[in-house]
Structure formats: structure tokens, C-alpha cells
Amino acid sequence: MSLSAGTRCGPYEIVGPIGAGGMGEVYRAHDTRLGRDVAIKALPASVSADAERLHRFEQEARAIAALNHPNILAVYDFGSHDGAPFLVTELLDGVTLAERLEAGAMPVRKAVDVAVQIAQGVAAAHDRGIVHRDLKPANIFLTRDGHVKILDFGLAKLIEPDADGSGTVAPTRTGHVTEPGMVLGTIGYMSPEQVRGQAADARSDIFAMGAMLYEMLSGRRAFMRDSSADTMAAILKEDPPDLAGDAHAIPPAADRIVRHCLEKQPEDRFQSARDLAFALAALSGPTTSTTTMAVVPSKHPAWLAMTAAVVGTAIVAVGATLAFRPRATSERADYAIAVDGEVSHVALSEDGQWLALVSPGETGEPMLYVRRIGAPDARPLPGTDGASYPFWSPDDREIAFFAGSKLKKITVAGGAPQSLVTIRGVARGGAWGRNGVILYAPDAGAELWRVNADGSANSAVTQLEGTEATHRWPCFLPDGDHFLMFAGDFAEGGENRTNAIYISSLSKKEKVLLARARSSVGYSDGRVYYVNADGALVAARLDLASEKLVGEPAVVVSRVAFSPSTYYATFAVSSESTLVYSAVSTANQSQLTWFDETGRELGRVGPVGVLDNPALSPDGQRVAYDSNDFKAKNVDVWIWDLARSSSSRFTFDPMEETTPVWSRDGATIAYREVTPLVRLKSASGIGTNRALAKPGRASDDMLPTSWSPDGKEILCVYQSSNGGHLDLAPTDGGAIRPFLVASGSQTNGQISPDGKWVAYASNETGDWEIYATTFPTAAGKWQISHGGGTEPRWRGDGAALFYLAPGNELTTVSVSTAGSFSTGAPRPLFAIRARAPISSTDIFTYDVARDGKRFLVNQYLKPDQAPPLGLVLNAASPPVK
Fold first, then answer.
1. I need a labelling partner for 518 at 20 to 30 A (CA). Which of 37, 73, 149, 745 fits?
2. Same structural domain for residues 556 and 643?
3. Is the model's pLDDT at 713 over the cut of 90?
């Protein structure tokens, strides 16, 4: 039936043709009653010749219309014109999936998002007993606003095969039920049972969905061969090539889901489209700045279907979710949590029902998010920018965290965070006891402190002993008095009392060694959890009366993400033995990137990795930086030759080396080592290094930041439990002398090009600001920033300073030293996407070319797909074999 413009089909006036195919002709029309544009599908005249089939079609059209699902084309009406039937549907704007696939494979995130929407629509139809039987890319429509619509639901029951039987359009045939020997479907997307002419059910649609997802991910059809007969034989007997081996990296989990759909026997596939939607939700990522979550169990640990953790600026629910309830039995159950973006820190509420996590937003700034396990969405907690190491209150109503040199708390319901106490260094974890006491580590090289939950009574609890350099990662036991912690001296090996998990208490304060380990620690149901030397998460029974671990530690998870810089293992366990963990280190990846004054990217430099502290050589030809190798559990200094585009490793010691700084003549590099803290080495890499004087205590740290013009002294940040201050280390090995010791902490010291001034950052007012003082003796103080600032850098001529304002806004200010020190008004340039710091040694995220017109930024790179977290119920039970 052909319709010309102006033709009236009842109340619908034809505007013009849209397209045509084996399913009939489609027209744009105007609904004169409701004043809206619609689509009219005029079906082939042969349909009207069979009254019974036409009646069944009308019944099915009404059933589909009753679905009212956002992923199924909405059917508004059914009628006939000149004896030929037609459907009235919503009018769509976009392309079919078949048209989109002409351009090749889709990005993984987009392909999975499309597949999730298809599965949800199909599941809704299956719930009503309606099976599509002819799912294929031509029957999937992608709207311009990102929605997916399934077309021609149920129409397969009406259309006869093409005369040549090729099946290239939509050859289908069925009676009231599918009859043996009748081919139903489209070649290439038919299930094996359809190829054999056997009964097709909901699992046949799942096979077709698997074939479509394969094509979306790979850009090629799963079973396309030279002829229809060969294609049908492939469907019956062959498996398509592995997706995980494609050049454009496809997650193995996606490949496993596709193969589970494409099993030859229906009983081996997903048994419902809803199950498939659950599994796909684990791989679903954002199409904008949002993400989604869903919890799905799986009996196959290799392709765990999962919870999608949301870490965007706005969060919406996409995909089905399963209400989470603790299991009544003691059987272990493994799940997974798919995430959009790296998760650096996790915390579980006492009852195991809430997850708090830290993940970077679009700018790279870490933020705190919370969600109820199994809920359809998650949400960010405003005001938690820069958050790290969250931990829950005993009643699960509040979360404490560290940000902006403060220990803060915030209610799960939201609201403004409340600052409890100012800390001088870089915190290393906390715990909230049932008696209202909070334990926390205020710095990387400090003992543990305590403060009441209202911010009162702040005081030290533990005391560093002997060679100990740190107490960190406290974990309260249920009595609110005993606690676990890690104590270490940062040295590899050695038979000493440090580098171990200890138990202590608020009441008696002595600590007792439990296990040799370099790890954060957790406790649940009488067991102590920590990471062993092989990187496995283990649990051992604690006898509290004797303060000893009983029996051999049992492996709970074979691999847990671990930071060699901080000894933090990414796991959390609740009192109900619910465990959340990351199996892969998810420290934010970054790459050194050039920008001009307007924020326009000029080019990228060197490798992608966990990089920090970029430092340009005086001639601008090379850049030194430190790189964190999580696999080798080591950090080293590297040099990238900008002219040759090549890298060379600069330090080789198994100790951690960071924060490189060039001498003014470019001949020598100073860098920080764990012991003896500051070393000098020829920038050529040839020859041995030599050590400068050590600071007083083993727990203290020293980071070089700037050379004096004469090369005789290096300005350093001296980090201790009292915060940071600026010291001068003579390059001849003489005694270290204080340069600037003031209230609060000081860092980022930078000597001016003429050697007469020092710019630095200090939090003496409670917030970080940029100041200047004289050099070589600190006399006087001038405040440069107002409203916050860190990381000052001088322009090559000394006539301007750059620093980072809140929000990582790169800011410049003119400087005049004629007569006295003065500055102009700060001028914002552009916001940088800096990688969030991991260690207390991560003190610089950018450097400036001498002319001040180009900036080398350690730019955060958001991953295309982040590795999932693991979720285990009844983690103390052995894994199910």
C-alpha cells in the first residue's frame, strides 16, 4: 500500500514517506486529534488476506501497546486503509543499529549501554509472554538522545519468507505456535533451534541479542558466511572468534557474556533477558558524566555479574537492580561491582549495607560517594572534594574522612561536612570506636592520635619506638578499646619489631605483634584481615584473651590492590563478614601534557602511568618525574628527553625514590630516597650518587624542592609528626639547618631565579595559601594568594608566580621586587585535571617553561573502563568450588 502526502488514514494525515522494507512502508503523519506527529507503518496487503492472522496481529499489537516500556517502540493505534492494515507508532529521530554498524564497531561502553537497553525491553516483553523471534540490528533503533527502541515486536508472526528463501530481509513464518520444520528469524541472528525449525522461545531472543552484541563490539557478524547454508551451518556447529583478542581492547567479561548468550543449547544460555540485563549492567558505563549500579549474583566467578558503582557528578539508575540482603546461610557468595572510574579507597558500614568510596570526578579531584548495596543509584556527598580514607561511625549514620588538611565528618543523608581537627601532614587512615573515640594517623610519619567525635580532646595515643617511622591504618575492635594498626620503618626486610600488624588498646597502650606484614588491616567476626607478601588477602583467627593469631592465615582473595607507597590495600570488611575489595590497583593514571596560557592542549609527553612531581630541566630539553610501578612495588625517578621522545630510568635502588629537582646548571639531580632521604646524582646518569645529611628521626622525611643559584644548598620540605617546614641541606653533606619553621605546615618551597626570595605554601591560617619570604634568611612574610593556593612556581625571569587555586585553577600573579616585594592581582588561567595524590611525596603536579607561556601538567586520564570491585558475602567461609 502506497500513500501520498495529504492522504487521510482516519484521523492521521500523511506528511511524507520515511522508508520502506520487507515489513512494509513507513510514513510520517500528523495526528489531527492530538496535534502530534506520528509514524504510520502500512503493512503488506497480503497480511489482510488471512483474517485469523490479522486478528492475532491486532491482539498482539494491543499487548505490545500495553507494555508501555521506554525501550519498545510505542504503538498508539491500529487500523486499515483501503483494506490494508496499518500501525500507528511514535515517531523516532535517529538511525537503526544496522545503519550505525555500517561505520564499524562501537566503543565498548556504548555497545554495552545499547545492549542493556535492548535486554530491558526484551525482558519487559517476555514478562508478558511476548517473544520477538526476529531481533536483529535492523529492528533496533538508536534515537539521537541516546535511547534504544526495539521495533517490529511480534510482526515476525505475519510475514512470509522471501520467494528465494534467502532470508536477507525478514523471512519468518509461524502458525499459532511455531511448527516443526518452519524457519523463523533472520539468517545470521537466528538461534540453532530456529535454524532447525524447532520451537522458539525467550532464549532464542537471547541468542540473537548475543549475536548483536558481538557485532557491536567487533564490527563483524558472528556467523556470516558466503552463503545462507554456510551461515546456518556455522550457527549450528561453530563458535565465533574470541572478542577479547581484538586489537581494540574488549573486556574478557564482555566476551564471556556474549558467549553465554551464544550457547548452542537453550538451557546453557542465560535463562531470561532479565538475567542478561543484570550481567550487562556490570559492564555498563556512562554515556555522559553519569554511571549506574546493579547487584547480580553469579555462580561463575569468571564472569561475575554485578553492581555498578556510580562516581559521576550526577547519578542516574540505568538497568535493573536486585535488593541486597545478607544471606541467611553461612555459604560464601561472590559478586562484583562495576565502576566508572578508579576507586582509590573503600569503606563498608558496620552492617555491610552501605558502601562509601572515593573516586575522581571529571576534573580528577577525588570525592566521596555513598550508596546502599543493591540500591539503583549512588550519590556524591557535596563538600567532600579532595576526600581520602573514609571510615564509618558505629551507628552507620556518619562518615569521617580527610580533606584539606582536616579530619572531617558528614552524615550519610548529606549536608555540610563538619571539621573535627586540623592535621599537619598527609593522613593515613582512621577508625571510629563504639565509645565515641576516633583514632587517626595525622601524617605518613607520625604516631596515632585520638579525638572525640565532637572534635574535643585531641591527643597522641601511641608512641614511635626505635626505628619505627610510622603508625597507621588503625582499626577498632568491637569493644571500642582494642584496636589494630600497622607499624613500620619503611625498610625492606630485617628482623625487627616493625613492618607488622599490631594490637593495642586505649587503656593500656602497649602494642603486641600479631603478624609480619606491610598492609592496612581489617577485622570482622573474630578474624584479622590483611595482605600477605604474595599480595593475597588473608584472614586469621584472633584470640583476644592472649592477643595472638591462632592457626595459619587462610586466603580469602588471591589478589588485592596494594599501594607500595602507602601500604594501603583496597579492601573493607563489615562486622557481618561482607567484604569489598579491588583486585587491581586503581591509582589514577596520568600523562604529562603541555598546555598554553588559555588551557589549550599542545601535546602529550612520555608514557601513561602513575606519575608525579614533573620537573623541567633548566634548558627545557628534559623532564624528570617519579613513576609508581605497582607490579614491582617500587617507585623510581625517570627522565624523558623531549627532543628525542625517549625515556631512561634514572634510579635503580629497590628503595622508593621520588621528587627529582634539577640543579640550576642542569648537571645534577637531587631526589628523595626513603633512606638516607636526599641524594645527588649526575643528570647524565653516569656515576654513583651521594647522600646528604639525614634528619634527626627515622620517622621524619625530607623532600628536595629547589636549588640555590650557587648550587651550595637545596631547599627541602622536612616532614615530621609536627607537620612540614622548610630546611636547607648543604650539598657538601654538612648539617641541615632550618630555614622556615612557623605555625602550621609549610611545603612547595621555591627559590626565585635571582636567589633572593622563596615562595611557599602554608596552612598556618587553617587553609593553604601562597606566601613569600626572603632568601637566604627568612625575614618577613608576604601573602600572595587569597582564598587558597598551593604549588607555587616562578617564571624564568622572576617577574611572575604561578600557583594552583581551589579547584586546581592555575593562576598567575605578577611580582615586583624593586625596593620591596609586591604583587599584582591574581589572574586565573585555566583549570587543570591533576591526578589525585597517593603519597605524601606527591607535592607537584605541574611545571612551567621559562617563558611562562607553556605548562607541563601531570594530567589525570579517565579510563575507558575501570576494573570492577569484588563483593563477597560471608567472606570468612571458604570459596565455593
1. 745
2. no
3. yes
Distance between CA atoms of 736 and 674, rounded to whole angstroms?
A: 17
- Calculate mean pLDDT across residues 330-353: 81
Q: Which one of 31, 113, 134, 334 is the catalytic residue?
A: 134
> Which range marks the domain in which residue 464 is found?
285-319+330-587+865-873
Phi-psi region at 825: left, alpha or beta (left = phi > 0; alpha = psi -120 to 50) = beta
CATH number where 513 lies: 2.130.10.10
**pLDDT at position 120, please?**
87
* Domain co-membership, 100 together with 80: no
Is residue 258's pLDDT more than 60? Answer: yes
CA distances from 35 to 13, 15, 31, 40, 665 (A): 11, 13, 5, 15, 77
| Count of structural domains, the chain | 4
CATH number of the domain at 625, please.
2.120.10.30
CATH number at residue 253: 1.10.510.10
Element (H, E) at 503: strand 500-505
Residue 388 C-alpha from the chain's centroid: 15
Domain final position from 56, 90, 124:
90
Same domain, 582 and 595: no
State the average pLDDT for the chain: 82
Is 351 annotated in the active site? no
User: Is residue 518 one of the residues assigned to a domain?
Assistant: yes
Domain identity same for 540 and 616: no
Residue 567 backbone class (left: φ over 0; alpha: ψ -120 to 50; beta: rest): left
Which pLDDT band, with edges at 50, 70 and 90, does 810 fall under?
A: very high
Query: What cell numbers appear for 470 in the block?
Result: 610510622
The answer to whether 195 touches 232, Cβ cutoff 8 Å, is yes
For 384, list phi and psi in degrees, rounded to 5: -105, 20
Q: Which three cell numbers stand for residue 785?
A: 594568594
Sign of CA dihedral 278, 283, 289, 291: positive
DSSP designation for 686: -
Q: Contact 39/26 with Cβ under 8 angstroms?
A: yes
State the pLDDT at residue 760. Answer: 97
Identify whether 212 is part of a domain: yes
Average pLDDT over residues 273-301: 50
Tell me: do 420 and 479 sit in the same domain: yes
In this structure, of 156-160, 468-472, 602-606, 819-823, the range with the lowest mean pLDDT score is 156-160
Q: Is residue 878 part of a domain?
A: no
Task: Inform me whether the pLDDT recorded for 485 exceeds 80.
Answer: yes
Q: What is the pTM of this model?
A: 0.56
* % of the chain beyond a pLDDT of 70: 81
Q: How many residues does the chain have?
A: 881
pLDDT in tens, 632-676: 567 899 999 999 999 899 998 877 899 999 999 999 999 998 765
Which pLDDT tens digit goes with each residue over 49-101? Answer: 666 666 656 666 666 676 678 888 888 888 888 877 888 888 888 899 999 99
d(CA 669, CA 661): 5
For 344-362, letters b (16+ CB in 10 Å) and e give bbbbbbbebbbbbbbbbbe
Cell of 269: 544460555
650 and 566 share one domain:
no
Domain harbouring 57, CATH code: 3.30.200.20
Mean per-residue pLDDT, 599-627: 94
Q: Is the dihedral of CA 457, 462, 467, 468 positive or negative?
A: negative
Tell me: do 184 and 313 sit in the same domain.
Answer: no
DSSP one-letter string for 140-201: EEEETTS-EEE--TTGGGTPPPPTT---SS------SSPPTT---S-TTT--HHHHTT----
**Is residue 280 assigned to a domain?**
no
Residues 301 and 408 in one domain: yes
How close are the terminal C-alpha atoms of the chain, in Å? Answer: 61
| Cell numbers placing 261 | 548468550
Asked if the model's pLDDT at residue 428 lies above 90, the reply is yes
Q: Tell me the residue type at 800.
A: A
pLDDT grade, residue 414 (50/70/90)? confident
